[in-house]
Amino acid sequence: MVKGIKIILLFLFFNSVLYSQTETSSIVDSATSPSSYSNKLKDKKEFIFKPAIGIGTGMFSFYGDLYVKHFQAPMVSRIGYDLSIAQRLTDYLDVNFYALFGKLGANERAEPNNRNLNFESEIRVGGINLLYNFDNFLPASRDASPYISLGFESFEFLSKTDIFDGNGNRYYYWSDGTIRNIDQSAPTANMAIEIQRDYKYESDIREMNLDGFGKYAERSWAFPVGAGVIFKINDFWDFKIGATMHFTLTDYIDGISNESIGNRVGKKSNDKFMMSSFSLHYKFGMKEKEGEMDDDTFNDVDFFALDLSDIDKDGVSDANDSCQGTPEGVPVDIKGCPLDDDNDNVPNYKDDELDSPKDSFVDAKGVQLNDSIIDYKYRFYMDSTGAFATVERHDHNGKELYSNLYQKEYSVEIGTFKKGLPPELMTKFLSIGDISSFNIDDSTTTYTAGKFNNLLDAEIRKKQLVEQGLTDAKVVYKQNGKFYNAPAYSTQLSNNSTAAATNSAVNTNPATNSAINTSIKSTTTNNSSTNTTSNSSTNTNNNLNNSNNISTSISAADSKGIVLRVQLGAYKNRLSKNVFKDINDLIEIKTEDGLYKYMTGSFKTFEDAAKHKVDLLLKGYQGAFITAYKDGKRVTLTEAGATPQKKEDLIEQSTSDNAAVNGVNKKLVTFKIQVGVFKNEPPPDKAAKLQSVKGLVTKEITPTGLNRYTVGPFHDYVTAQSAKNDLVKNGIDDAFILAFFNGEYITIQEALELLKN
User: Fold this and answer.
1) For 114-149, what is the HEC assignment?
2) Spatial separation of the C-alpha atoms in residues 157 and 661, rounded to whole Å
3) pLDDT tens column, 111-136
4) Same domain, 566 and 462
5) What gap in Å lies between CA 439 and CA 442, rounded to an integer?
6) In a shared domain, residues 612 and 543
7) Residues 504 and 373: beta-carbon distance below 8 Å
8) Separation in Å, CA 421 to CA 424, 445, 636, 656, 657
9) DSSP one-letter code for 170
10) pTM higher than 0.70, yes or no?
11) In terms of domains, do 533 and 580 share one?
12) Whole-angstrom Cα distance, residue 205 to residue 160?
């Protein structure tokens, strides 16, 4: 044992010496290095007292003269406690002052020579140890650190034994395994009665002097050797778990030694004990800074070279360069900034007008703005009517209030119909990529194109639709859930403003400059330039308005070319929005024959449409299929240029546009029977009836907070109707059937419609 301790001490000593030599050699090398200007001398770390306090608990296990193997099982060990205060000496070495207190004990029974001994000892320990955590070998960013420790301590023990019960009867251990009050070899043994140990250690072992040791000292020295793991919780807290063996210099803890008398004789080596524990440690001091650099981070940095560096190669060192990142070859001033001869804050290499008048307003390309564009910008900035942007209202607490209720949304109305659409008009509408449908009442539907947050974009879209033959198109805005005719936007589309916008730049933003000019010119251009106009207009919208408002790409909305959609079904009766609650861009088209067709999506490529179809299949719309429209007419997917990887991707709905088609998964349609709705718990008579119901009664909370009790679900209406009739016969007269699609409430008529075909 002593040899092992010496080896550990030598290991820690030589490791410290090597670390010191490394530091010394680095200082000497730095001082004698030719580049001592850039390699700063490394100062020794200043010692700062930052203690860590810990508290823990564990189990004391005794290893002494008792038991055959002189080993105590952990389950019969005694509890102990640990208090400590530690200070870090180096990154890998801590010094730790600690106090332990608890109990040691052992109970042997029927050991060799029929020895039955026991003891319990109060232990109090105070000591110091060094803890080595292998930091100089392990990564610095670890969360767990193994450790070993070695120390020196003083401890005190007070050992007692249990030889009498509470009535003063001495324990005699008989060979049959019982404990009696008379020795089994005594003449009166037949009068012995069986007693039980009370495990109260009442007799002082030293005072009993059974082996003639006299008044030996009940204190001694010990050498603790430990090992374990420290887990880092955060910058302030650590969790430690480990075990420490305490090698003592006494053999009297259990009151037995190799000099004891008779069958009490023990082994020659000293007693020892082990504490297996876990503890929590709090480290005082500042929090470790994230990304904190080591002391030698800049040792090899050539600061002189950095002072002369010129990354953008403009002839001005980075330390004196006020405009870093100037493009190579651009002339600069003494501060490293690109030249600006007309002082309009647009450098010459970006300036399209190098001689702008002094103090004039210019755009991002340095071109002077005219009065009409400045006026437009001013009205756009100051607008509070919703003509250019969304209006939001807020309460006095700053919370958004009625933003959806009061905001304006411009679109182009292309028709309002009380009857169904004829086939040629239906296909023309479906060829419009940005079409939307709105149900005004049970028999009236309004169709619109586009959603815009300013009137100018809406007027441009209207002009496109008129040129495509929809002469009744008009700009409207939606507010408070209703459509209103928008005011004419003649000012911006007049010839005067067109000429003004054409002759000069428009805005400080180059995208805006192109946008307004091109948008205004769109009043006189043909269809071939529509896409360019639309893209520019959209840029105008996005650049001029910083808020995240509604907007659509006008070029994508053009009805020329291919438009691919996914059809969800065609039904003889209109379905509620709950059936398609998870479809954000649903389009409802009522045909001339009275069918209600439901569409979603608007795509230019077959790949995008197929991906959308797969998403819908996963949502339960198993009959969804892709339809194609070109230049206002229905075409096949092959004619639309589809080149799918699988043949089945080209399968289209073979029925005509006027045939009813069910596109949903019928398994998602379910029925339940409502047997009662109550504000609180059902009254006793109702509760008794509910308990008598055959089948599972489910309690649900309605959106209004009521308790709804239902029976089901059922997957067909006939079964649900039969179950409802049985409930009525059993006294639940107000039972009725509810229908659901994909968990959302729908009417019975809608459920029956979805179960057709």
Assistant:
1) HECCEEEEEEEEEEEEEEECCCCCCCCCCCEEEEEE
2) 92
3) 666 788 999 999 999 999 999 999 98
4) no
5) 7
6) no
7) yes
8) 8, 10, 21, 15, 12
9) B
10) no
11) no
12) 5
